[in-house]
Amino acid sequence: MKIKSHKSKIFLLFSNQKGLTLVELLASIVILSIIIVTFTTFFIQSAKTTSMSSDITDATYVAQTEMEEIYHLSTTTTYDDTIQQLNQKYEQCANDVTNLCTTIDGYHVQVTFYDSADVIDTATTLLKNVLIQVHNSSNKLEAQMETKLLWDK
């Protein structure tokens, strides 16, 4: 007998014809809206972060590629020959042979050579600091690399 009464209570619960009141409907819509807006802001922020990190990664790759090329030149040529070879690829910024500029993959690349303060045997070698800065189209710095390279005289 208890089984019938239990089944009949469940049947009555599911066969209730009252429906939802307007207050219940509005409350559920408000709760769903809050949840949807919260998750939407998370997705938007995630997309912005992904885009920004992708731009920085691309700019860093450009800087690394240029730095590797200059390093290779430092091991195979003299400093003056390196500057001459780079002048074929780069333009001089501000009429300075040690400050070179170009555009690679939509990024503005600036390479600067300047003397190092480190003590070395200057009779046979030349130590220079090399600074590579990569800017995006709105001139915001996206990547920067700096190293010291040694050239034979």
From TrEMBL:
InterPro entries registered for this protein in UniProt: N_methyl_site (IPR012902), Pilin-like (IPR045584)
Domain of life: Bacteria
A matching Pfam family: N_methyl
This protein's record includes keyword Membrane: yes
Places the protein is found: Cell surface
TM segment ranges: 21-44
Alphabetic keyword roster: Competence, Membrane, Transmembrane, Transmembrane helix
Chief localisation class: other
Protein name per UniProt: Prepilin-type N-terminal cleavage/methylation domain-containing protein
Originating species: Gracilibacillus marinus
